Structure formats: C-alpha cells, structure tokens
Amino acid sequence: MIKKYTYLTLAFLLSFALVSEETGRHEMHAFYFMQVSNPPAIVGAIDKFASSECGKKFPADMTLMAETINGSSPATHFLILSFETRADFQKAGQLANSCPEAAAMLQSFVSSASQVRNSLNLPVAEFGDWTKDSIFLRYDVTLKNETAYIEAWTEMMDSLSAEGSVNGSYGINRAFAGNDQSTHFVYIGASDFDSLTANQQTLTTSSDFAKFSRKVGNNRKVINTSVVIPVKGWPKQ
Question: Which residues are 30's β-sheet partners?
Fold first, then answer.
C-alpha cells in the first residue's frame, strides 16, 4: 500500500506543453482522490509534514478538499498539489523520494485512507482566485474539441460575470494524465452555498446558457457534477 501512495505522489515526473488563455499563478495541479475513513488524521499528517524541514522546502501549495456530494464515486476527499513551475514539480518529486517526513506522511495516509484515482491537470483557463472561495461545483466532462468549447464557455462566463451573476472564481483544467474517466473538469466557486446555488440557478436559466448549450451540445459529455468544500490549505513556504 505504501508503494501505491509513493507512486501516487511521484508518478508524473515528465515534460508537457501547456496552452492557456488566462490562468492563475499555477502551471499545473496534481489531484489525488481518496476514500478517507479518518479526515482529522489526514489533516494531522499533512500538518506534521508541512511543519517539518522537508515540508518547508516542498515547492507546492497543498489543499485538502472534501467531496460532500459526488454521485456514486467512492472518493470522499482529494488532495491538490499546485505547482507554479515545472521545475517545482520535479523538485517536489525529488524531495518526496528522499526525505523521511514524506514517507511518514504516506504511512499515515495508508492507515486513514485508500486510493481512488489520480490525475495531473493543466489550467487551460482560470479566472479569479479559487483559493478565496469556500465552496465549488465541479463538472467532470469529456470534450471532443477543446478550443471550440473554451471559446463558447468563456463567452458565456464572461457575460454572466459582467452582469454580476457569477462572483467567484471559475475555470477549466485539462487532464494531461489520468484522463481515463474525463478529459477536463470545469469549476465554479462561490463564497457560500447560498451564493453557489443562486448563481447556478441564474446561469442555467439565462439566455447565455441556452446559447452555450446549443454550441457545445455535440461537443461535450458531462460525466459527473460534484459539490466540493475546502478543508484546509498549506501554502508553499
């Protein structure tokens, strides 16, 4: 089991091409989905790692998310490692391979969680600061034509944002690796659940959404929709 988590953390030491329209400060995000039996133990394990000498050198923002509603998926949580550069990604792998504090964290994971799936995601378009939102809708989708979808989706979201119907972060990430279930995910954030549901109601009943749906109806398949809440974040030190 330890080997599984070691692979989970280190498997993506590779090069890639990144194409983006407007993105945040991160070039890539590694997602690790888990079925967690003891959430406080996972938080404690990451706390301990983050405060260690190895953790202080770890070149990634770490965020633990809870999937409060996600259909039939067994995942209850996912850990995001967000990297500002490709060099940071490679450095993180080297540190995780060499420091005992990382091994101790993985050992703690083994006793409190089981692996569900993982993916390496490239931000194709990101607007706003998702780290400031407290709840999200995430749509796992499969796209035939990424460029056409992003053009239609950005047009819709920009229009709704200008009207004040969307006041949180939003974006699209491409699954560069670990894309056996979906090719992309779309997210929309908000400050609270009331705002999220109100924004969603406005979005789906708008003329902009009707126009968007006509454009992308044959281009995308929605695999699943999840409600996601941040548990805790550990910024890069």
Answer: 81, 120
Q: Are 83 and 105 in contact (CB under 8 A)?
A: no
> Which residue ranges does the chain devote to CATH 3.30.70.100?
2-12+19-123, 131-228
pTM (2 d.p.)? 0.85
Per CATH, the number for 131-228 is: 3.30.70.100
Angle at which helices 100-112 and 86-98 pack, to 10 degrees?
Answer: 80
Q: What does 188-221 look like in DSSP terms, one character per residue?
A: EEESSHHHHHHHHHHHHTSHHHHHHHHHHTTTEE
Buried b (16+ CB within 10 A) or exposed e, 197-223: eebbebbeebebeeebeebbeeebeee
**Whole-number Å distance between alpha carbons of 169 and 136:** 9
Structure letter (DSSP) for residue 87: H
Assess if CATH 3.30.70.100 describes domain 2-12+19-123.
Answer: yes
* pLDDT per residue as tens digits for the range 17-31: 333 344 568 899 999
Per-residue model confidence as pLDDT tens digits over 32-64: 999 999 999 999 999 999 999 999 999 999 999
> Collapsing DSSP states into helix, strand and coil, what is residue 41?
helix
